Amino acid sequence: MPEDFETRTAAPGPSDPRPLGLTRRQILGIGGAFGLLTTAGLASAAALARRPAATGAELRSTAALPPPFRTPLPLPAVLRPVATDGAADRYEITQREASAEILPGLRTRLWTYGGTFPGPTIESRRGRPVTVTHRNELPVPTVVHLHGGRTPAASDGYPTDLVLPAAWPDPAAGPDAHAMAGMPGMARDAQGMADPRAVTSRLTRDYTFPNDQRPALLWYHDHRMDFTAPAIWRGLAGLHIVRDDTEDSLGLPAGPRELPLMITDRAFTADGSLHYPSLDPTLRERPGVREPYLAGVLGDVILVNGAPWPVHETDAARHRLRLLNASNARHYALEAVTDDGRRLDLVQIGSDQGLLAAPVTHRTLPMAPAERHDVVIDFAPVPTGGLVRIVNRLGTGRTRDVMAFRVARPAADDSRIPPVLATDLPDWRRQDAVRVRDFSFRAGRMNGGHGWLIGGKPFDPARTDVTVGLGDTEVWRLVADVHHPVHLHLTGFRVLTRGGRPPLPHDAGLKDTVSLRPGESAEIITRFDGYRGRYLFHCHNAEHEDMGMMANLEVV
Ligand SMILES: [Cu+2]
Questions:
Q1: DSSP state letter for 82
Q2: How far, in Å, is the centroid of ligand 1 from the Cα of 480?
Q3: DSSP 5-34
Q4: DSSP for 115-133?
Q5: Burial group, residue 14, by CB count within 10 angstroms (0-12, 13-18, 19+)
Q6: DSSP 8-state assignment for residue 138
Q7: pLDDT, tens digit, for every residue of 314-365?
Q8: What is the CA(30)–ligand 1 centre distance, in A?
Q9: 421-449 burial, b if ≥16 CB within 10 A, otherwise e?
Q10: Of 363, 253, 357, which Cα lies nearest the Cα of 314?
Q11: DSSP SS3 for 365
Q12: At 52, is the pLDDT very low, low, confident or very high (cuts 50, 70, 90)?
């Protein structure tokens, strides 16, 4: 796959933003003006041949940045239930502003779940429901979505199902206002787009997650209409793990040798504030980002679990790394490199929706926004005191480093990687599909400006784009102009083909996000089971998502 992970080395331009090792013209693929994209499309043959490493533009921090591998790796606290009984666990999370010392000596204001970034981790068991009462003490409406969750529609965090802060005007207010908080109302997005089916609430909302799904690393994050990208950037993201007895019995590395790693990129101003190019920094009215960043916002500081380029001391033993790319737009191609330049194997045991059928060994592991990879790495061959750097081959300069492990001591290791990890993966076949659909993911015009479109249309909550029957199996053919990580709510899928060829090694298993690269197509197959109701599919480049690249999926 050499061309897939080629890193460009063109000199950065003198001006901010600095595209990731490319001139902006190259990233856009054609002329520099975004307007041209909409008429010409982006998929010029030249752009495809070059296959840029990134879609987006990088913000430069003006804060003093720490050296890499000095900050200890934080591990998000596991949330304790406020009530638990034979049938379910209840949790409470208050969404509120907080500050944290992310860069040494500076305070960063954040929007948080429960006061920390990442938010607290929810540990759950398969089939045991969890209800989370979210209380919104932030200055704007919020929506919680559990990414990868098999969740009833009322708890899936539809973008207009807003939880309004105490002082926020009723979105249904208007000439014919009659809806009350907690009742269906004509929620309007920032551009006045009405959604007659929105169910808003005031201050709190209960989200119920049945956890009736394969064990997996899921994550919860804000999904508010038009403002998802800046809300996640400010800190609204946390982990939710589903486990079961079968997985526990496999003998995989566990306890302190199982590490959740949420990877994000951010940029900081000199006083430690988060830097983000919002048109309206209050995130109250006008959505969107400044023109140079329409393709996606990249930061120049890599955070893992909220810490810049952290280091973690380990035993010389196998470790299970549960990786999540929670970046808005940045892609990674991860490698584990020792002091003497050797690359350690990354043995992938799981993907977005849980364990693979069998392990897949990588030297380089690509990750698009929202993807999860469950990986075992063995530090036994590393001498005591040795450093193993996790690097991003797609990064340049400081964004090439991600984090490091310092192998502190020899240790016994009774963990194992079974040759068969799971036997419950769905074996949907093409001939099972009752329908084949085609969707393009491309730049286009929206509200008189630039947008990102699915099938030529910007998102409209009031329009049903796709209606599927509960239990139907379908094949979807997806095609992209630039990088678009495509995510389906409700259901996992399998990648059938990529670019007309067999899937790549990291496409294995059950996915909920597939990374389309510039000019690429992919076929996915899924069965829409679980729940009826209104769901979404969308691009998980968070800036694209906010600029129209979502569509409605109605399960009937
Ligand atoms: Cu996209």
A1: S
A2: 8
A3: G----PPPPSSSSB-SSS-HHHHHSS-S-H
A4: TBSS-PBEEEETT--EEEE
A5: exposed
A6: S
A7: 999 999 999 999 999 999 999 999 999 999 999 999 999 999 999 999 999 9
A8: 18
A9: bbeebbebeeeebeeeeebbbbbbbbeee
A10: 253
A11: strand
A12: confident
Report how far apart, in Å, the C-alpha atoms of 231 and of each of 92, 222, 346 are. 20, 6, 32
Rounded CA Rg of the chain: 22
**Strand runs (DSSP E) across 225-317, as ranges?**
237-243, 258-268, 274-275, 297-298, 301-304, 307-308, 311-316
- Measured distance CA(54)–CA(56) in Å, rounded: 6
State how far the alpha carbon of 179 is from the alpha carbons of 136, 242, 401, 407, in Å: 20, 37, 51, 59
Task: Say if CB 318 and CB 253 are below 8 A apart.
Answer: yes
E strands within 169-273? 187-188, 194-195, 201-202, 204-209, 216-222, 237-243, 258-268
Distance 553 CA to ligand 1 centre (A): 18
CA 405–ligand 1 middle distance (angstroms): 32
Q: How many residues does the chain have?
A: 556
**Residues β-bridged to residue 515:** 485
How many angstroms separate the CA atoms of 536 and 228, rounded? Answer: 14
Assigned token pair, 471: 């239990």
Ligand 1 midpoint to CA 549 (Å): 7
How many A from CA of 203 to the centre of ligand 1?
A: 31
Of 524, 435, 543, nearest to 479 by C-alpha is 524
Q: Are 360 and 366 in contact (CB under 8 A)?
A: no
Dist. CA 413–CA 416, nearest whole Å: 8
Distance in angstroms (rounded) separating the CA atoms of residues 43 and 222: 31
* 482 within 8 A of 496, measured Cβ to Cβ: no
Q: Which of 320, 219, 318, 233 is nearest to 262 (CA)?
A: 219
CA distance 20 to 13: 10
- Say what the pTM is: 0.90
Tell me, what amino acid is at 276?
Y
Query: Is the predicted pLDDT of residue 192 greater than 70, yes or no?
Result: no
Residue matched to tokens 């030297």: 363
* d(CA 539, ligand 1 centre) in Å: 4
Per-residue model confidence as pLDDT tens digits over 353-379: 999 999 999 999 999 999 999 999 999
Distance, CA of 204 to CA of 141 (rounded, Å): 11
Give the distance from CA 9 to its chain's centroid: 27
